[in-house]
Amino acid sequence: MKKYFIAITALVFVLLVAFVVWLNPFSWNWNALSNAHTSTLAQQDNIWQAYTSTADHFSILFPGYPITSSKTSTTIGLGPCTIDTTYVVEQNQNAFLVQDYIFKNSIKSYNPQTFLEYILDNEDTGQNLQLVSSSSSTYNSYPTLDYITRGPGGVFFKGRMLLIGQIVYDLSYEYQVNITPRVDADYQKFISSFQVQ
């Protein structure tokens, strides 16, 4: 009986040593494992998904689920308006934003393109933004204003304003030239996916 016990103990010991040698954690490529995990996280951060706001009547593609801020009232020269909600998704130190301005007084008497230019010139909320370029156009028959503004510290906003009834939608992409240059393909995907619901 003692012989069997010694033989079984020896066999277990040999199997244990073989298993440890086979499982040798010192031979693992820890960098590859870490990079694979980081790559998976990066892919998760860059998953584009459709987002629909039933309250603000639009849908758009965002690279993640947006964080929203609450309603605030303001005045932009032409009278009182409400910034209903701001939707933001940050990605690699850049940000995608949708903001809507709902005007209480009728704005039908204004030239739509002039009106959008006026909003762009007057929406600066203490950020010291400077206009780099702007151009008027239409998107799905709605008047639009495409723009680029520059703020302190190399922060830029590339965006599009759309006038739809009493609402101005401001879609913008914030990027910092010195840290993360803009990705035009991402911007186009974001802007072109906007739909009124």
Quick synopsis:
With 197 residues, the chain is an alpha+beta fold. The protein has helices spanning 2-22, 30-45, 112-122, 184-192, and strands spanning 49-53, 58-62, 67-69, 72-75, 80-91, 94-103, 130-139, 142-150, 155-164, 167-176, 195-196. It has 2 domains: 2-41; 49-196, Protein Transport Mog1p, Chain A.
In CATH's first tier, which class of the largest domain applies? Alpha Beta
Reported CATH architecture of the largest domain: 3-Layer(aba) Sandwich
* Span between termini: 82 Å
Poorly predicted regions are: 25-44
Overall morphology: globular
Instruction: Let me know the average pLDDT.
Output: 78
Rg on CA atoms, Å = 28 Å
Count every beta strand, where a strand is a DSSP E run of 2 or more residues: 11
> What sequence of helices (H) and strands (E) makes up the elements?
HHEEEEEEHEEEEHE
Structurally, the number of domains stands at: 2
| Beta-strand fraction estimate | 35-45%
The description of the largest β-sheet is: 8 strands, antiparallel
